[in-house]
Amino acid sequence: MKVCSFLPAATNMIYEMGLERYLNGVTFECPSDKPKVVRTHLEGRNLSSPEIETFVTESSNMGKSLYYVDMELLSEIAPDLVFTQDVCDVCQISTSVVQRAIGSLKKQPKVVPLIPRRLRDVYQNALTIATELGEEKIGLDYLASLQKRVHAITDKLREHQAEPKRVMIMEWLDPIYNCGHWIPDQISLAGGVDMLSNPAGYSVVTPWEKVRQYDPEVLVIAPCGFQVERSIQEIDQLTSKPGWSELTAVKNKAVYLADADYFTRPSTTLVDGIELLAALFNPQLFDIPETCMKKVVAISDTELSWV
């Protein structure tokens, strides 16, 4: 069976489950050395957060997709199965664009859309992938190992009767976006609550004054698609805002930049994100996971230090 994964989350889960032998094509963003079938019009552009926001908005208003398929390469691969997504047209190529692209292929592959809204859906997606590849047992065993890691966190929080921390996770810096979909589930399991979040729904623009009024105890900044090094370039857009130094999170030295993949990518690496958040919310109970080392930065008085 020849498989193409048109979203990094599926690619990541395929590798995590040791099923990469089925994989023949991926996207430009996928953590893989397989042929890159899906590209984006944003490649090669060095744009700021506001410029990216404008580009995305204008493309949407004109009905243009940010992504396209290398049809010559796809025809050469001739996949039997293609994994797509139907959650966010901004983050990854959508199923509708893929369907139009494969319409001209001589052999029509089976298209399997993955539609995660909550964390439980992400788990189900992992099982769907394994099942479609004829490897259901591998999927079940993998999910059991993930759930064991999460239970270790929730059990310790209960054991120590840890009070939920008032937190905020930002999905974009300029303009500020709150977090949505499965991220509130991650926050809850890690011992926090984000009253500005939108569980199972899209993140939305959130006024700075609303953030100030909410006054989080812990603030985690993870702009979608950005790694820490990229976020550092624009952090002054946040630290220069009026009232920044008055936030409880700033006073507590509990402001962090983190790689977005731990939160915005609907993969089983979200469990790494839960473990990371647990350590940021309750450092007296949890250590930063080794997998997250050098991927988190603490902000203190506008100074940055690796966690």
From TrEMBL:
PROSITE patterns assigned to the protein according to its UniProt record, in alphabetical order: FE_B12_PBP
Matches recorded under InterPro entries: ABC_transptr_periplasmic_BD, Vitamin_B12-ABC_binding
Pfam families: Peripla_BP_2 (PF01497)
Domain of life the protein comes from: Bacteria
Residue ranges constituting the Fe/B12 periplasmic-binding domain according to the UniProt record: 2-285
Name of the protein in question: ABC transporter substrate-binding protein
Source organism per UniProt: Neobacillus rhizophilus
